[in-house]
Amino acid sequence: MYAVTRTAAHQGVDSYLVQVEASISSGLPLFLIVGLPDAAVREGAERVRSAVRDALDAFPSSRCAVNLSPASRRKAGSGFDLAIAMALAAADGKCPAAIIESAVFLAELGLDGTLRPVGGALPAAIAAARDGPRRLVVARENAAEAALADGVEVYAARTFREALDLVRSNFAAEPVRTDAAALLAAACRHDDVDLAEIRGLGQAKRALEVAATGEHAILFSGPPGAGKTMLARRIVTLLPPLSLKEAIETTSVYSVARSKGDAVLVARRPWRAPHHTTSGAGLVGGGSWPVPGEISLAHNGVLFLDELPEFSPRILNQLREPLEDKKLTISRAGAKITFPAHFLLVAAMNPCPCGYWRTGLRECKCSDGDVAKYRARISGPLLDRIDIYVDVPSVDVAELRASGDEEASATVRARVTSACRRRRLGAATRLTLAAENLLAVAARKMALSARGISRTLGVARTIACLGGSEETEVHHVSEALQYRVPSEDGARTTDCTDVEPARVA
Ligand SMILES: Nc1ncnc2c1ncn2[C@@H]1O[C@H](COP(=O)(O)OP(=O)(O)OP(=O)(O)O)[C@@H](O)[C@H]1O
Ligand SMILES: [Mg+2]
Q1: What is the dihedral of CA 255, 256, 261, 267, to 10 degrees?
Q2: How far is the CA of 105 from the centre of ligand 2 (A)?
Q3: How far is the CA of 358 from the centre of ligand 2 (A)?
Q4: 460-489: per-residue pLDDT in tens?
Q5: pTM value?
């Protein structure tokens, strides 16, 4: 009396298939689950017992053993319930064993046999399509999401009884279908904010456009009420729309984190703005069984850190790896868990604790020590990864009241999208001689690190792509240098005017 089926477990946002074997043998009544189950999986025994009793009128009154393999990997969560119940029912001869072998089952069971949704249905469907029987049974609430995956038939059931009927009929029902491309297209932009709402601040807007094009980390500094948060909020409206591949990736993260709400597909670029009191695990991900943090929820979108110096320096330092590698690796119990974290960092800060240092708006009440201490909270290595630093001055009444024609997000987005394409195709990788000379002089004067140089070059290339240029020219490098983070005393580390007569305004 033996049967085998499969379920899926996730590590990071990737799922792998888990084989579930059940054997019923003579002996004292006992229900045992082995194969490195965690507490939630073990507790599932009670739910499975109750659901099986409900659907089959009795639970086998002999020795039931369930083995989850590979036994070397820790199994977490409640999604194993349905597969365990299925394997037991088949081992008990209540449903055809050959058929349950041809499917993957993923759902939590209620005591009354209801199928409950679990996190990670989409990655599970992707794993089923890739490694296993291309058939997946999930709770109804998970079905549309799971069906986003290509190459797998997804079936929905409300209860364990319904799932049994599905198996007994050899999957005679219609599989659930989701048209991912249509969902993505339907999410066409109805942004609630637009760049045109911001008056003036031409330089800051230009910097925002460059950041959006090249995915360069950007930091706004300015007095309270200058419009920093307003600018940051609008960067998602400048980014090219998500591709289907990106949308599926991002949806997988939200699925595992169970923060998707009712949406089937995350069809827009995420914008995450965690508060500065957020814990390290909340920001970068973690916990004893790691879940994605804000940086992963911002995958393919924007992570906005407002009041940057208020974040704990220890937590900010954890951003260094993901900013470089676009992913985060956490080691737990011998396993390396990787979360995607390809986000665009947008940060904002005041120049000092009172907010008015060198703004010319009001007298700054902070001592030099206060200012230095405040700015030192952002570590050098993190600042080195910020490519674009912009001072945001407060606009005056005349500018605020002016009914000037501000560019709309859609116009800028069109420019960004075509420049992104040019950049991807390798445009402007060549540097003119004059540009190279300027970079060499500036690197020496500004004491740029090797990273600083290559990042400046990256920004210059982005600017060249935005300008439709074939090569990176001297004025592109010059603009990129102006975006480098200034030194401690608040002045630009160097003024390159003396080395570059053709410097742009
Ligand atoms: N350039 C601008 N055009 C239009 N409105 C603006 C502009 N700058 C500021 N405002 C107005 O001021 C409000 C405050 O702006 P915002 O919240 O972006 O400031 P902030 O720089 O983030 O300030 P803080 O440092 O206090 O966080 C906005 O909601 C908007 O109404
Ligand atoms: Mg703000």
Answers
A1: -40
A2: 47
A3: 18
A4: 999 999 999 999 999 999 999 999 877 654
A5: 0.89
